[in-house]
Design goal:
Elements (H helix, E strand, L loop, with lengths): L2 E5 L7 E2 L6 E2 L1 E4 L11 E4 L5 E4 L5 E3 L2 H8 L2 H17 L2
Parallel strand pairs: 1-5
Antiparallel strand pairs: 1-4, 2-3, 5-6, 6-7
Length: 92
């Protein structure tokens, strides 16, 4: 599983997070080079929603099984712990 963090740059059309509705305009792999593929995990940096990429590049909410699998990944847990701090730093 490649974890892809959905951020706010690079794709002016973007797409809306299926949970919070914020516009996500880019997807960056953890190493910064992977393009998202079908089944890759996505984390919205606005709300922390766990999503999955579809074959057409859109994202959808995860199933309960997918959510459980993602939450068991230490990397996903670290990202989710970091999101509130990113918002705090942005607002200071």
């Amino acid at each position: 599983m490649v974890v892809v963090v959905v951020a706010e740059h690079d794709n002016p059309e973007g797409q809306r997070c299926p949970v919070c509705g914020n516009l996500n305009e880019a997807a960056t792999g953890m190493s910064g080079v992977e393009a998202p593929r079908e089944g890759d995990a996505s984390i919205c940096l606005y709300c922390g929603a766990l999503c999955v990429f579809n074959a057409d590049g859109t994202i959808r909410q995860t199933t309960e099984e997918e959510t459980a699998r993602m939450l068991a990944d230490p990397m996903v847990a670290r990202i989710l712990e970091t999101i509130p701090r990113l918002h705090e730093e942005k607002n200071t």
